[in-house]
Amino acid sequence: MDLPSSRMRVGDMKEIKYQIGDKVRIEDRISSYDNKCIPLPHLSQFIPSLNKGERITFRDGQVVFEIKNINSGYILCECIQAETTIKKMSSSLFPDSRIVYDSLEDEDIFYLKKMCKLGLIPEWIAVSFVEQDYQMEEVRNICSEVWGNNNIKLMAKIESKNGIKNLDDIMKWVEGIMVARGDLMSSITPYELPDLQNIIVKKCNAEGLVSCVATGIFTQFANSKFCSKAEIADLYLIIKEQADYIMLSQETGNSKYPFECVEMINRAKDYFESRFNSYYD
Prior knowledge:
The chain is of the alpha/beta class. Helices cover about 35% and strands about 20% of the residues. It has helices at about 105-115, 135-145, 160-165, 165-170, 180-185, 195-205, 220-225, 230-240, 250-255, 260-280, and strands at about 1-5, 25, 35-40, 55-60, 65-70, 75-80, 90-95, 125, 155-160, 175-180, 210-215, 245.
């Protein structure tokens, strides 16, 4: 089970491909059909934490705007990167701002209690944008309140600089860590990512925690059936680091060849593991 946290997602709007230099208004509203307005519900509660010159990114950093002016209920921005479209439910992130998202919302607690009434107990609960250990403590306490004594395992998704900074404390409250590379890479420089991924997986292996590497693994293959050298090398590195799990997102959730993508990754994984095993025979 994946809890999305209180991070904001785009409201109801037409799918739009913005261009560099475009000026837009990002507004606290549930919908907009004005091409120059991006609806972002609940924005108002985060506006006091924003500053001019900071960035807001969408869709794992593929679309980036710079904040030019801040007003009550909306911000004025300029597009500085546009690799894809923005559409309803696109993820957003403020990588330069000091925002801490709530791990649990009232809606999450409602559904957890509803699951309990139906006799359902999740094996794992993954929590998005974990930056402080108290966030996982809160989730742990809610699980105990809802289910009593339980064996539910918690996985913290590390997606920001603060999550990296407080990793050791966070690890004390969980059974697993996810390297959520999409949003994480919006918060760091690209060349930091492989090193941080390696550090997190090694820490998990040393502490007996489950490690999961997520997103952006076979995106090109999933849309073209052509496997790039970078993609296969990335997968090789993940397997060599001994990560326990790989999680796909766009590759299987919104692509042309989701089944072929999974099949190719499994074949490559089996081959890599057989080669690694032969090194030690």
